[in-house]
TrEMBL record:
Entry's localization field: Cell membrane; Membrane
Homology family: Belongs to the ligand-gated ion channel (TC 1.A.9) family.
Boundaries of every Neurotransmitter-gated ion-channel transmembrane domain copy: 240-327
Superkingdom field: Eukaryota
PANTHER family in UniProt: NEUROTRANSMITTER GATED ION CHANNEL
Neurotransmitter-gated ion-channel ligand-binding domain sequence ranges: 38-231
Name of the protein in question: GLRA2 protein
Keyword flag Cell membrane: yes
Residue segments, region Disordered: 326-355
GO molecular function: chloride channel activity; extracellular ligand-gated monoatomic ion channel activity; transmembrane signaling receptor activity
Amino acid sequence: MFFTCSLLFLSFGTLVPVEGTQTFDDVVNIFGDKLHIMRPGYQEDRPVTVKVNMIINDIVMDGFKPVMTLDMFVRQTWQDDRLSFKNNDTMSTQPITLSGEDKNLIWTPDLIFDNLVEGFVHDIFQDNNLIRISTNGTVTLSQRVSIDVRCPLELQRFPADSQVCYFGIESYSYRMNDVELLWGDNPVKISDDAESWDFDILTLKTSKSAKFYSSGIYSWMEVKVIFQRHMSIHVTRFQIPSILLVILSWTSFWLPGRVAHARMLICILLLLGQMALSSLPRTLLLPNVPYLTFMDILMAINTTFIFLAVLETVAVAFLHRNQDQRSSDDGVARPEGGAETIPMTDFGKPGQSTSGRRLSGVLAKLDFISRIAFPALYLLATIIIYSLVFRH
């Protein structure tokens, strides 16, 4: 270790130690012995102020898993007067640069992400650590890290939802009277190339506070990211097909009552298709959340309207059957085998019974009311549910 430290210092010229050191050997001994153990200012009983900056290279929010993934550069800056030095040659302002495992030669903050699921420091070729020590003792540590942090999801408004994710930073072992964390200038910056395909990043906020544990009070900082989900893909895949199924169910109101079997077949097939479609978001996308989402409510409304169309078709078939029975009682001929052969022009003939004409009027009126009521009520229900969701 003495040999490594000597090379690092000699590569930048002859060092003349400042305050607290007498010889070059003392500086090397500090690097190799004390500086990686004792924090700066411990003898003066003052905390080390650590300023933190971040540059987010990539941010991934799945939207259906409670995890946010970030790839970023984390930069920490603090003052360590024990590392201040002077240089006798022309490189008097040139800082000392360390990298890789050389980070262990000096004291560094022991920051942690308090809601971390998994993370690592990149180590392609060697550990992505950069330490720059200025002549006045200012130390900058830059690391490239990738982390997965917990992000509880609130999916009640899916797919019109927004998600709030955060990650906190604190010192693992140093209390506030030992290490104080502060945000540096322009604390968190998102790279222009960083994007999340399913979400837009609405806002990014930073804050600072303190956390209280049984072992003491610790300095704590937070980054809060607010995402807005892209609705278009979910509207295209689920909502529009479901709306079309509802509209198709209304076509049965325009078919004559004597083709009740065809009307029933159309509505039942549409109902089965809607039920299958409404199960897809839960099956393919959503986790097993114990509450209804906006998508569930929309699908339930569409399913209900198709089911009501089935009930209307059943009512028409029942009334039409009663009409047929009354017509047969009035002498309407039937072919052998019992199948009814009433031509369309037979309805409403002057010779038709009063009860038959009354039922024909009821059938026509029921279909007429359905043609207006179903679209109007469906539009009203859709407006109400959308207004409730987007009101906030």
